[in-house]
Design a protein that fits this description.
Mean pLDDT: 87
Order of helices and strands: HHEHEEHEEHEEHEHEHEHHHHEHEHH
Number of helices: 15
Number of strands: 12
Helix content: 40-55%
Strand content: 15-25%
């Protein structure tokens, strides 16, 4: 009770400290949620646009993101994916660089041949169609971005010719009719990639039943590493292996590490500000109450009791500040989780992949709990120097203090 009364003896100073701790903790929670939400959306977009959660492909490719080497027999991997309950959907793919030719122009492009019905679930590219329709399993339709269509000067219903190296080393060529145009906002997707049915591409390349990757979407992306390890072990020795999205989108892992390092630096700065505020408050309180502590010691209070009293005052300040900060941070995260936070990230990442400019924030309770606990620990550590100094006061000298 005495510690609580002492905390509010100087209301203005206490409220300033509570506000500093509360706003600091709320800022930390907001930053944690923002970084984690950004990372989650970045991973979802990368894996949901083209990568997938787990892939089975050749292990001797030059670039795991776009493997151009074909698997001689993809069926063993297909059977493993069919039997794994952690796999939600999987599909065969062919990704190969080739030439898209129209009457007025020709362009190099990444040709993605997919199983349309599976690809609708495996990725979200079908949701970006702005004109026409998405691919059909049968037929020879092609879907491309508006940018590459504009460069080729082609429109819906017109034909283009795809050319790529066939199985025998010759140049395979086939005419496809433009049935859909998509607009993702990404330069790479809208200006460099075209999509065709897998069956038509297998016929064009003289590779019946073949693919250069099996892409899978899992029920839980957090199991990607474990699923990839299990599939890789089941595949056994050979040049076919299973890899998770982390081995494909390595740049995302680097971005995560960079963002986490920035967040750690911000945490240290905020915690330092909170610690200095508590230290300043307790030192001012100590100088104002030297005579008071002298009286308490003169009537029998032990130095350890004085130390505990000051620590209790600091912990009460920390508790009130942490509750205020947690409440404020939760309100902010809830608001931006519902309405979203508009940031120009879509433009910054638009070259690499489709990415929205709105971040919907989600709480990360484990990190938030760590931040709250850190406030208590820092409050305690910051109050130790003035508390120990008060415990070393001599009653006679303290009573003479003016």
């Amino acid at each position: 009770r005495l510690a609580w009364r002492n905390v509010w003896r100087n209301r203005r100073r206490s409220l300033i400290n509570v506000a500093a701790m509360g706003f600091g903790l709320a800022a930390i929670m907001f930053g944690q949620s923002l970084i984690i939400s950004l990372q989650v959306q970045l991973i979802e977009k990368a894996t949901g646009s083209i990568t997938g959660h787990v892939r089975i492909q050749r292990g001797d490719v030059d670039e795991s993101k776009f493997p151009e080497k074909f698997m001689a027999d993809p069926e063993p991997g297909a059977r493993l994916l069919d039997k794994d309950p952690r796999v939600s959907i999987w599909g065969r793919r062919i990704q190969i660089t080739g030439l898209v030719s129209a009457p007025s122009a020709s362009l190099g492009a990444l040709i993605c041949a997919v199983e349309p019905e599976k690809e609708r679930i495996l990725t979200d590219m079908s949701t970006y169609i702005k004109e026409g329709k998405y691919l059909e399993a049968d037929g020879k339709g092609i879907v491309m971005g508006r940018k590459i269509a504009g460069r080729l000067d082609v429109r819906l219903g017109e034909k283009v010719v795809l050319m790529a190296q066939a199985a025998d080393g010759s140049m395979g060529a086939e005419a496809f009719r433009v049935i859909g145009l998509h607009q993702t906002g990404s330069e790479s997707f809208d200006g460099q990639i075209v999509w065709v049915p897998l069956k038509a591409m297998q016929e064009m390349l003289a590779r019946p039943g073949q693919a250069n990757q099996l892409a899978a979407r899992l029920t839980d992306i957090n199991q990607a590493d474990a699923v990839a390890r299990d599939l890789d072990a089941a595949l056994g020795p050979g040049n076919v292996r299973a890899i998770s999205w982390k081995s494909i989108d390595r740049e995302i892992i680097s971005i995560q590490a960079f963002q986490n390092a920035i967040l750690s630096i911000v945490l240290v700065i905020v915690f330092a500000i909170v610690a200095l505020g508590i230290l300043n408050t307790q030192l001012m309180s100590l100088f104002e109450r030297v005579r008071e502590f002298g009286v308490l010691m003169a009537i029998g209070a032990r130095p350890s009791w004085i130390v505990l009293l000051i620590l209790a005052e600091s912990l009460l300040l920390g508790l009130v500040g942490a509750l205020f900060g947690a409440a404020l941070g939760t309100v902010l995260i809830g608001y931006f989780g519902r309405y979203g936070l508009h940031l120009p990230l879509g433009e910054a990442l638009s070259y690499f992949l489709p990415f929205p400019s709105v971040i919907y924030m989600h709480p990360s309770w484990r990190l938030h709990a760590f931040a709250c606990a850190s406030v208590f620990v820092i409050t305690l550590l910051a109050s130790l120097p003035p508390a120990l100094r008060a415990g070393r006061l001599k009653p006679a000298e303290a009573l003479r203090h003016v």
